Amino acid sequence: MFVPPSLSDRQCLAAKPWPQVSRPDRIRLRDWQTRASVWGFPEWFLISQTALPALLCLPGIQPIRTLLRISAFAVSLGALVWYWRSREPGRRHPAERYLTICIAYLALMVFHPSTNTFVAGTAQVMLYLSVLAPIFWVPHVQYTPKRVQRLLLILLACSALNSSVGVLQVYDPGHWMPSQLSSVITSDASHEKSLTYVGPDGRRIVRPPGLSDNPGGVAGPAAIAATLGLVLMFGPFKPLTKALCALSAVLGVAAILLSHVRTSLLVAAGSFLVYIAVLAIQRQRFKVILALAIGTSVAIGSFSLALILGGEAVPERFSTLLTDDPISVYYSARGGALDYAFSTYLFQYPLGAGLGRWGMIRYYFGDETNVESPPIWAEIQPTSWILDGGLILLLCYLIALVSTTKDQLKIARFARSSDLRFSAAAIVALSATTLGLIFGFTPFTTQVGLQYWFVSGVLYGAAYGPAA
After folding, report:
1. Which of 19, 93, 297, 346 has the maximal Cβ count within 10 Å?
2. Angle at the Cα of 144 from the Cα atoms of 89 and 8, rounded to 5 degrees
3. Rounded CA gap, 244 and 212, in Å?
4. What does the DSSP assignment read for 11-61?
């Protein structure tokens, strides 16, 4: 179904087939549908973002740790280079212009007097670019609504695998916990206290890293598995697929509980409520009631599993979510950092503090002897935006996120097919997960943010490309 280019966005989304299509156009449309349905680079790209970091769990891999951590981001940059070499004129995602400003300003920040080193500053820019790169090339790939659903199932499978490994790391750490991670923790008493808790049999349980080597690192992918698993249960899939989606949601919530990351649990719950709201906007009242019932069942099942494996430390950790209001709980965990970012850092560094001042970029590429560029702690995304680019980076990135959210909601309401409306609602909920994680850590410098821009580009390409 082609739509006239003169129509508005809303008219394009809801447009009906052309009343008359010539034979050559029908042939071209069938060819397009075939190409847009086959398994191709987007599928493998999505898998690589989980598979490459997972190699860090293998024994003896630490000597090439830096290369492995870079590899997933390098794949994203390679895809961007490929797109620029073969780009064709077409519709651009609404966030693209604002993200271009972000990258241009960060490139200028490499020459900031307080940038740690030129290499660290350049690496910081490349990190940002690799995370947002999918928004430039992903919309120009050809999709059908069914292919969008397949990509969402792949993302769920990767996140569910991550979550299941996290659960197994608590159940049987001897076989599933990375050996080098365990040796690092046990060698330092302070690490053992902050990154472990006492289980039901008295042994100390390391916060599961999942398919990474960072304690508690499973919480981010687990939040995606919890949200996406619940949402995709309502998709046009076979009963076995829906059952696996439900299992993925249970494992995702259980992995969050076992990792003791309260922010991720709040984010997953909030994202599911966002999906409920989208269903209400779509006037699917029965699905709203069914979703609430299924969500409650998943929560009970996940808590039971986490209680068996993690013991009383699990309810003790998360009981504060019930004994106090969520805002107070958040402020006691991360709210102080958010308040300090806007009350101090924003006024101290209105144009940015220079690059290479925080995080693993400084660790890998920085110079700790540079007294003009001392380290600064950044544990949430707004802090990192302010430090790296000041008010300009903060506003431009936020505007890009707002424009993306508006476009996703518009597609969820006015898409031309029920399959695409369902996928749009799922992506709205999934995007809400990433946006919520902004206040818990720095998702837009990790694969979590990269996946956000990937699925946003997929939805845009499916909605405004030739109709399936």
Report:
1. 93
2. 55
3. 23
4. HHHHPPPPS---HHHHHHHHHHHHHHHS--HHHHHHHHHHHHHHGGGSTT-
Quickly tell me which residue has 């987007």 as its tokens. 42
Whether 108 contacts 55, CB under 8 Å: no
Give the helix ranges, DSSP H, for 260-380: 262-281, 285-310, 313-318, 320-323, 326-330, 336-340, 346-348, 359-365
- Across 383-413, b (16+ Cβ under 10 Å) vs e yields bbbbbbbbebbbebbebbbebbbebbbebbb
Give every residue of the chain whose pLDDT is below 50, as ranges. 1-7, 15-23, 25-32, 182-186, 467-468
Place of tokens 């302070």: 190
Using CA atoms, how far apart are residues 296 and 418, in angstroms rounded to an integer? Answer: 26
**Residue 197, φ and ψ in degrees, nearest 5:** -150, 165
Residue 151 Cα to chain centre, angstroms: 14
For the stretch 244-301, pLDDT in tens is: 999 999 999 999 999 988 888 888 888 999 999 988 888 888 888 998 999 899 999 9
The whole model's pTM is what?
A: 0.85
Supply 205's token pair: 């349980």
